[in-house]
Amino acid sequence: MKTIILVIILNIICGTAVALDSQEKTAILSPEKEAVLGAQVATQYQATLKLLDDPIALDYVKRLGNRLISFSETGSSVQFQLVNDDKADLCVLLGGYIFINKGLILSAANEAELASAIAYGTAHVSARHVAQMFEKALGYTINSIPASWIIFHWDGEYQQQSKRPEESIIVRTKFEFEQEADKLAAQFLLKSGYDPESYSRALDKLPKKQPVSGLMERIYYSRTEARTLPKKEDYIVNSPEFELVKSKLLLSHN
After folding, report:
1. Contact 104/131 with Cβ under 8 angstroms?
2. Which of 43, 71, 115, 223 has a C-alpha 20 to 30 A away from that of 141?
């Protein structure tokens, strides 16, 4: 799927569906340009997926995600879609589009764990990390752009060792963006009523088969950051709505 996203974006660029002048290639995409390009990417990417036809689950995810990003200082908006895929993952694209796999909901032990993953996505949207990575990618030849440069995945599978000097810069930048998103996500969780330490616990459940991903470092710093935030006596751990949505998905899954 990551390759499909890259092909879609490159086709749009090469087809000049969104005109990018020389000045825009040296500055971060404006929110207006990002919205236009993001809508095109999302529409074409969505056509390659099997979306989950479950209005109740989608409405629940939208309300949960919108509550989290409502604490963003940038006033960013986000668009959610549910994908009928068993992999516990979500994908963040240009323009604030987040595609959440059914498997992410099914794998979550409680609402706080699901909220942690969604907070990760909303944090990247809030900081406009995808737009910044896209802008960096414009400085390279089309054929040399790895798909990992312009997307963010909760499962972190995109991470790879750099083979060229310019790639090491991109990988380092992406890791810095991941750390920034981790920090923002913990803040969104706390302000939404969840324990910010649930974020590092959710990260800790991710596969650790790729030592170059920096996941262990992210877990450590996320846990350390969460412990510096104000404490509350009570946190939201679960909700009847989460259990209802998960149970419904489990029934349809089996």
Report:
1. no
2. 43
Q: Which strands, in side-by-side order, build the sheet including 97-101?
A: 79-83, 97-101, 90-93, 152-153
SS3 label, residue 10: helix
For residue 179 the two structure tokens come to 């750390």
Element (H, E) at 172: helix 165-191
Strand partners, 92: 98, 152
In DSSP terms, 99 is beta-bridged to 81, 91
Angle between helices 240-253 and 111-127 (to 10 degrees): 100
Task: Tell how far CA 25 is from the center of its chain.
Answer: 24
| Cβ neighbours for 109, distance < 8 A, ≥ 6 positions apart | none
Cα 101 to Cα 80: distance, rounded to the nearest angstrom = 11
78 and 98 in contact (C-beta within 8 Å)? yes
Cβ-contact 37, 29 below 8 angstroms? yes
What are φ and ψ of residue 8, in 5° steps? -60, -50
pLDDT tens per residue across span 165-179: 666 777 788 889 999
% pLDDT > 70, the chain: 76
Quickly count: other Cβ atoms within 10 Å of residue 168's Cβ: 12
Q: Give the model's confidence band at 17: pLDDT under 50 very low, under 70 low, under 90 confident, else very high.
A: very low
Neighbour-count burial of 147, counting CB atoms closer than 10 A to its CB (0-12 exposed, 13-18 middle, 19+ buried): middle
Q: Is 89 within 8 Å of 154 (Cβ atoms)? A: yes
Query: Is residue 200 over pLDDT 90?
Result: yes
